[in-house]
Amino acid sequence: MDTATPPGSARLTFRDATDADASALVALIESAYRGDSSRTGWTTEADLLEGQRTDEEGVRAVINAPAGRLLAVERDGGLIACCQLEHRGDAAYFGMFAVRPDSQGGGLGKVIIAEAERTARESWGVAEMHMTVISAREDLIAWYERRGYRRTGQFTPFPYGDERFGIPQRDDLAFELLVKDIEAL
């Protein structure tokens, strides 16, 4: 499926990722969140977490989840972003959202999240979109609030000790549930 993008941008193509995309998706996600390359964009978690954000096994699990899909977003034939959608009853879960760091800050994220909301609503008839965000990421939470998401005050602990999710650099990390009504969009 195609959709329009911000002025001056080439058209985006949204498609379901396949197992063949796993390596490229891991590289994209890691570049957006971890290490020095992530500091090019504004979504970096490099000051909060070291180590990996995901791996090929985790990405393949999302790609092959029976109740979900991983959208690969391309521009001019190159992978530029991705996001996970998972059907959870009356809601969809939005996760694994990554935009290439050198493409952040120009409105691309707004287009992708709007397409993800539309896709979830039309595919599953869900009324809400849910996501979890590290509560220390105030700038990121504020960005989602500007997109209509609301903080719930519901927290789940960070999986300390499980290096598959990174090596925490702080002892106060937790995930907060954010929710948006997408039924009427």
If you had to describe this structure to a student in words, what would you say it looks like?
This protein is α+β, with helices and mostly antiparallel strands and 185 residues long. 25% of the residues lie in helices and 34% in strands. The protein has four helices and ten strands. The protein has an eight-stranded mixed sheet with strand order 1-2-4-5-6-7-10-8. Strands 3-9 form a two-stranded antiparallel ribbon. Helix 1 crosses helix 2. The longest helix is centred in the middle third of the chain and has 17 residues.
Write the topology of this structure.
Blueprint: E1 2-3, E2 12-16, H1 22-33, E3 49-50, H2 56-63, E4 68-75, E5 78-88, E6 91-99, H3 108-124, E7 128-134, H4 138-146, E8 150-157, E9 167-168, E10 174-181
Parallel strand pairs: 6-7
Antiparallel strand pairs: 1-2, 2-4, 3-9, 4-5, 5-6, 7-10, 8-10
Helix pairs in contact: 1-2
